[in-house]
Amino acid sequence: MEETISLKELMQTLRKRMTLIVLITVAAMVLSGAVSFFVLTPIYQSSTQLLVNQSKNDQPVYNPSEIQTNLQLINTYNVIITTPRILDKVITDLNLEMTVNQLKDKISVQSAKDSQVVNITVQDPDPNQAAAIANKVAEVFEGDIVDLMNVDNVNILTKAEVGAKASPVKPQPLLNILIAAVVGLMLGVGLAFLLDYFDNTVKTAEDIEKLLELPMLGAVANIEDQKIQRKVNSSRGARVRSEQVG
Q: What distance in Å separates the CA atoms of residue 114 and residue 118, rounded to the nearest whole number?
């Protein structure tokens, strides 16, 4: 005989384990908040933009092949920006105490599709250093690309600046707490059903019917010993009074 679980039984399981579910959810939220606020290091982000112009000897005529060439050139620039040739000079000029690979991990270079604008984004625990690195990378690249590729078609469009109220881009405590709440709730519900699944104790008449697959014909009420004792004492007292009257 297959066992079926009704929606009512599911709700009863959740109601019975509600304290456990709430405790796990709250514990996950508190742990996530503590880690986000007191353990993880705030990371700030700063960006600068480069504009890749067409070469001066390019003819102002629409040419699909030239457009494709410009896009491939931008992809080449994106790779050159994070090479040791550029980053070594940045480290030297800013007196940074880090390796080229460490600096490279802080930098991301992107360009929008079919766009001549290259975005250089730097993330660092110090907002001022993040802006300084972004500006220095753009400056060094603008100067070195002339010798590297014999072109002079790169200009700094916007420089990185530190706002008056710079805020970190990560961690995001509220988002982390929200995710922890969802994960904690899922763990709590899963654990509640797991505990209920392995709980083989018989608690109600319905449990007996399911276990034996037989109908219940009757049940013996559970009478507390104190109630029995009070009834016995009351009966004895009544008998004694009856004998005295007789």
A: 11
Nearest-angstrom CA–CA distance, 177 and 27: 11
Domain with CATH 3.30.70.1130 in the chain: 44-158
Residues near 209 by Cβ (< 8 Å), separated by ≥ 6?
215, 216
Give residue-wise pLDDT tens across range 137-183.
Answer: 999 999 998 888 887 778 899 999 988 788 899 999 999 999 999 99
Superfamily per CATH, domain 44-158: EIF_2_alpha (3.30.70.1130)
Could you tell me the two tokens for 65?
């092949």
As a 3-state breakdown, the chain gives helix, strand, coil percent values, each rounded to 5, of 60, 10, 30
- Between the alpha carbon of residue 82 and those of residues 77, 101, 120, 129, 141, the distances in Å are 9, 9, 10, 17, 9
Under a CB-based contact definition with an 8 Å cutoff, are residues 117 and 50 in contact?
A: yes
pLDDT digits over 63-121, tens only?
A: 556 556 666 778 888 899 999 999 999 999 999 999 999 999 999 999 877 788 899 99
Q: What are phi and psi of 199, to 5 degrees?
A: -85, 105
Q: Residue 42 gets which letter from DSSP?
A: P
Q: ∠ at Cα 170 (80, 126), nearest 5°?
A: 65
In this prediction the pTM is: 0.69
